[in-house]
Amino acid sequence: MSERRDQVIKLRLTQAERAQLDRLCEADRSESCAAYIRQKALAPDVSTTAIAELIGRTGLTLNMLDTATPLQLGRLSADLRRLTAELRKHRAD
Q1: What pLDDT digit, counting tens, does each position of 70-83 carry?
Q2: Domains held by the chain: number
Q3: Among positive and negative, which fits the CA dihedral 87, 89, 92, 93?
Q4: Which of 27, 31, 32, 43 to pair with 5, CA 20 to 30 A apart?
Q5: Claim to verify: residue 26 and residue 59 sit in the same structural domain
Q6: What does the pLDDT read at residue 34?
């Protein structure tokens, strides 16, 4: 069972910032803005091991592409974007 989230953080944004956040959440296909912010703020940088895990998850999802749910396809899309960004970062190093 996962730990219950009982801590609340209030965040004030301008209308422009909120619109930008909504666009980012939608582009990432996050389940919610809270999930998007949590992932961006708390997720560690992707390492070589994490790149391998992303590749593995991508392969698993592609193997079940015919039966994948919209949520799984959204996660696949987000994983591919993260994988691409990390590979570009490693290539630049």
Answers
A1: 988 888 888 888 88
A2: 2
A3: negative
A4: 27
A5: no
A6: 92
